[in-house]
Design a protein that fits this description.
Number of domains: 1
Helix content: over 70%
Largest sheet: 2 strands, antiparallel
Radius of gyration: 19 Å
Shape: globular
Oligomer: single chain
Structural class: mainly alpha
Order of helices and strands: HHEEHHHHHHH
Strand order of the largest sheet: 1-2
Number of helices: 9
């Protein structure tokens, strides 16, 4: 039996679909990296709304029904917000280092980055793969947790739309990665960074990979946070 939705859930679902498609489709047309990531962020907000829509389902009698999977949805929501935050921060940290040397923000400013500084190129590429939700990286694991929890709330069709928009995002992320690894550099000078910056980049890479391969420690912390949210009950007084 299909679930019955309350008015607020219908609004959230509409906003979810609009955010996922509009954000990712507009990002396809961007050449400025900051604008591309801004519209990509709108798409990722749609994934957050995907979880919000699944938090409470209204029964046929009109009362708010919290199914046993609600805790899993909250865990998935928090995990994905953390994973996206880490990946996004890693990307912009790399971009700031590149901008410091090129003073440009267009996608072509990354041309040949793998030759100019392999570590920055590796971390930036890893962050994009993580945000796209590819395996090994934390973004894949967080999307898997979130999408699995939402699909168990009889919203499999909405998860299907989320997967489609994830594939759209992968396309424009690959446009950026193509510049990094395939295009020849416009500038011959190598990018130099401090030892501290190298350590930060290494930490970003480690968190994105370890969080994807072995997410249990992170999930244990998230479980504590979600239990605090669930026990307060204030978030769920929606009707």
């Amino acid at each position: 039996m299909l679930p019955t939705f309350s008015e607020w859930q219908i609004v959230v679902i509409v906003l979810c679909v609009l955010s996922m498609f509009i954000g990712n489709l507009i990002a396809l047309a961007q050449s400025n990296l900051k604008r591309l990531m801004a519209y990509s962020g709108i798409g990722h907000m749609g994934y957050i709304l995907l979880g919000v829509a699944a938090l409470g389902l209204v029964s046929d009698q009109g009362s708010l029904s919290f199914w046993g999977n609600t805790n899993a949805v909250v865990n998935g929501l928090i995990f994905h917000m953390v994973a996206y935050g880490i990946s996004n921060l890693a990307f912009f940290y790399c971009l700031a280092e590149v901008n410091h040397h090129t003073d440009r923000e267009d996608i072509s400013s990354l041309a040949g980055l793998s030759k100019r500084h392999p570590l920055i190129a590796l971390v930036m590429t890893s962050s994009l793969f993580s945000m796209a939700g590819l395996p090994v990286f934390v973004g894949f694991t967080s999307k898997f947790y979130l999408f699995s929890a939402v699909s168990n709330q009889d919203l499999l069709w909405l998860v299907g739309l989320a997967i489609v928009t994830s594939l759209i995002s992968l396309y424009y992320y690959l446009m950026v990665i193509r510049q990094i690894y395939i295009e020849n550099p416009h500038e011959n000078s190598c990018i130099t960074i401090s030892k501290f910056t190298k350590i930060i980049l290494g930490l970003f890479l480690a968190v994105m990979v370890i969080g994807g391969i072995y997410p249990q420690p992170m999930m244990n912390l998230i479980q504590v946070a979600s239990e605090a949210v669930m026990s307060s009950g204030t978030v769920f007084n929606l009707l």
